[in-house]
Amino acid sequence: MGAERADTGEWGSSLSLDDQVCFALYAASRAVTAAYRPLLAELGLTYPQYLVLLVLWERGEVSVGELGAALRLDYGTLSPLLQRMAAAGLVERERQPADERSVLVRAGERGRALRRRAHRVPPAIGAATGLSPGEARRLRTELIAIADRLAGDRSP
């Protein structure tokens, strides 16, 4: 019944769990995060810590604001995460002398050392999902578009 509405472009007002896009996203998110858990446990990382390191490995040193924007996290969520990561040697934080409010973040010694070992995570997750690389790219594009629309970002 839900598939019929999707095919005709009608959302309807069904309160059936199986008809809810939000539940499908929620269930998929939980399943993917669970698939990451044992892989990241081998690295001694949580999923949020892994995401922070992905940004830092890609971009090098970034401001806390840039990191928050990349991860779609607010300062109140990101700050305690970065504090724990700094205490574990995963990241280093440095206040800017010109602007004490600005803090730069980079991978710490332990965080840099994990990069090589982390290269096996994406292929393992790809295999677990059963998606082809093309399917994964298309799904990622659709999910980002949904997130952008819900966040009010209408830019392409």
From TrEMBL:
Listed GO CC annotations: cytoplasm
InterPro entries in UniProt: HTH_MarR-typ (IPR000835), MarR/SlyA-like (IPR039422), WH-like_DNA-bd_sf (IPR036388), WH_DNA-bd_sf (IPR036390)
Gene Ontology biological-process entries: response to stress
Principal place of residence: cytoplasm
Residue ranges of every copy of the HTH marR-type domain listed in the record: 18-148
Subcellular localization: Cytoplasm
Record-linked SMART domains: HTH_MARR
Any one Pfam family match given in the protein's UniProt record, by short name: MarR_2
Sample GO molecular function, one term: DNA-binding transcription factor activity
Keyword annotations: Cytoplasm, DNA-binding, Transcription, Transcription regulation
Alphabetized Gene3D superfamilies for the sequence: Winged helix-like DNA-binding domain superfamily/Winged helix DNA-binding domain
Domain of life: Bacteria
PANTHER family tied to this protein: ORGANIC HYDROPEROXIDE RESISTANCE TRANSCRIPTIONAL REGULATOR (PTHR33164:SF5), TRANSCRIPTIONAL REGULATOR, MARR FAMILY (PTHR33164)
Protein's name in the database: MarR family transcriptional regulator
Species: Actinocatenispora rupis
